[in-house]
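CORE FACILITY INTAKE
Project code: CF-77B
Contact: R.S. (postdoc)
Sample description: multi-component assembly, two entities in total
Requested service: structural model of the whole complex
Turnaround: standard
Below are the sequence entries exactly as provided by the requester. Do not edit them.
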Amino acid sequence: MSVSVETVKSVEAATGGEYKYGFYTDIESELAPKGLNEDIVRFISAKKGEPEWLLDWRLKAFRLWLSSAAEEPAWANVRYSPIDFQDAYYYAAPKQAEAPKSLEEVDPALLETYEKLGIPLKEQEILAGVAIDAVFDSVSVATTFKGKLAELGIIFCPISEAVKTHPELVKKYLGSVVPVADNFYATLNSAVFSDGSFVYVPKGVRCPMELSTYFRINTAETGQFERTLIVADVGSHVSYLEGCTAPMRSEHQLHAAVVELVALDDAEIKYSTVQNWYPGDKEGRGGIYNFVTKRGACRGRNSKISWTQVETGSAITWKYPSVILQGDHSTGEFYSVAITNNYQQADTGTKMIHIGRNTSSTIISKGISAGHGQQTYRGLVRILGKADNARNYTQCDSLLIGEKCGGHTVPYIEVKNQTAKVEHEATTSKISDDQLFYCRQRGLSDEDAVALIVNGFCREVFQKLPMEFAVEAQKLLGISLEGAIG
Amino acid sequence: MGASKHTSDVYVDRFDEIRDRLPGAGLPWLKNLRSGAIERFADCGLPNSRVEEWKYTNLSRILDPQPVLAGPSINGVHRASLKQYYLDPTPCHRMVFVNSYYRPDLSDTGVLPAGLTLCSLETALADRPELLEAHWGILHDLSEDRLSGKNDLKPHAMIALNTAFAAGGAVIHLDHNVSLDGPIHLIYLTTLEGERPAMSHPRTLVVAEAGAHATIFETFIGNGGDAHCCNALTQVAVGPGARVCHYKHQGEAPNGAHIGSSHICLAKNSTYNGFVLSDGALVSRNEIRVRLEGENVDCSLDGIYLARGNQHMDNWTRIDHMAPLGKSREVYKGVIDGAAHGSFQGKIRVWPEAIQSDARQLNKNLLLSDRAEASSKPELEILTDDVQCAHGSTVGDLDGETLFYLRSRGVGETAARNLLIDAFVGEVIDNLADVPVRKYFRNLFNHWLSEAT
């Protein structure tokens, strides 16, 4: 455990304990005109050279978004001044003459940005064996390890590319888990999504490496609307990692992503996120509005979808990675650590919809709130009438640090089947004085003691993360809670 | 929306007809309160499932066709039909209300000890209007969402309706350090108005001054199989160091509807023990709001809902810890059979000032049939760090292995099931402090269990 404390220290030393990723890279960007109208939607579609059906799909979404049918959700336990959707850029691409053929052709300044972020693409390519699709503002910059994956028949490419190379797959699955009319932000995303990752794992293939996407918002006043679609065919297995950062800016930026997962018979998808968007400064100025729709469908028998998330960033987080358990014997999991410090607000949780027989789901949520942070766990467990022997276990714990913060728990449990077994438990408390006293008596400083206890509190979730991410998550935890104890 | 708007118009028109005939119509403060309430109701309309607090309850099922507002008519209710609801064998102060109007001929108030005021709303408005004025106005402060600053009155439409129409009910006042030997039993019976289902709006006020101690028992019933709707509101103010045990039995007629809300304010060092058992009505809702306003308050809030057939039972509770050192305990258990739907929505809010609060909440549901449905939404809203709060919720069937164990010991299927159901619910009933009350609920539960098909 002392390792983690040390790591926190060294990271603090290197960064002064402030937001580590708050630089921005001076790369010429190509921007669409500010604002949002049908022409912008057409512009984005044209820029991407999309086929007609996708443009129609986008326009349909945009018209729906304009109509009163799509209403900006107001039920979440978060407060912010209204967003002016016309006062943002909906498309920003790093300017480059031609699409890069390989890593060597990628703008060195861009690569340096990633270096600063701690994900040297080249190094990771060789050492870590992680295949990365990096999305910079809205455009996918480089996809590593493509060749090796292609040998196995795995498709891992920017979604804009998949639209051209594998239209039948994209057409079949896009919007099938999160329909265009799902919610306000998903509808907006459907209209203006710029890029994202597409993964297809063919029958019986076990993806030999972790697939990874790194998202970064670089340009000022842009919104990022990425769209990720992962399809795991019969008997396949894939683990996918997602990381996010943004530079420090005094104004708010919108991030409204959609992630769709589809698991067929006996397939398994593991999706891990470390979300570290810029959270705003100590007075709550600036920061990312992270309004994200993530949903997975366990379509096949015996399929499994597992969400793991570490949410340390964003001024406001609004995110409910969900699983629809359609196939008999399918499994859904949700492991989450969320931290809100200073004036951060998070309303996050999950939905587990049990439709098939013998389905089971597990929810472990750990919330840490400090400073003026406000955090809500909002979850739904719904067992439908046909879901015999469905099983759910939910545990939500909140840890509060400081008298000005808040931790809230809002679970919905709806059961329509007698044979279901559903259990929910939640606790809220502060770090006990006894625990702190014990640590300090052993010579640990207050900060180290808190880091130690908080790491212990989150252990169950960190254990679910792939190794590299677990280390990063622990570091982030320390940085995020900097200054919370005093 | 259009339909509910239309429905609310009917109530507004009715209010205009009777406003001058309501008791206390001459009191300016009451006049203002009532007209303000009907305006709020007209703005809000009847609550529907789009209102978060009413998510699980659909009122249109009971308010269409529209019940008529009950008047003070004689409805052929006799003592004999009430006997089964008496608390036995304790002497108690019993008041009976038919369609919310006090019926001295059916009541036995006994000898009232010094320092106890026990009378009907009409009498209280004539004799002690200041008491009502001091407490009725408090209900206006229902501001919901402190965090978002939203103040939505829609969830409180039925409370507004009660405020506008309440024409009867009980008023109970205990002076400093007055302690009652026996419980006060209030029986509210709602029945027909002429030939049509009646809607009544009984309103009860209980004030226990510093150091007083009382047990209040409310029974809500119908008359035979008649459809009716009872929209009750009970306010309890517990003074410093006072103690109130507050029991409620919702046993309305099978076709009836019950919408009850209780508002409890607790001053420092006071104790409040609340318990509700619901086994009646086709559609019912119990709303309880408790405010721990003073330091060091001890509060328990327990409930049992027994639903079968097509019954719908909604339990909604809200506990506000507003001062340091408060303690609250909440256990709600539901047994749901047939095609019934039982729901629980319970919220605990710990205010920033309420350091060292200790709150526990538990909701357990037993589904006894493949068509039964349970919804549960336990909710914690914690705005300071120095607290201990926990909640839990479960939904499940009787445990197969336990059942098998009993069967293997020669216990019959039904007996084994009943034994387990009894163990599930009995725990709550057997913990009730007052013996006659415990007996009352015990008998009730045993009867319910024996009726199982």
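Facility notes:
- Residues 1-5 of chain B have pLDDT under 50 and may be disordered.
- Residues 98 and 189 of chain B are 5 Å apart (CA to CA).
Invoice: internal transfer
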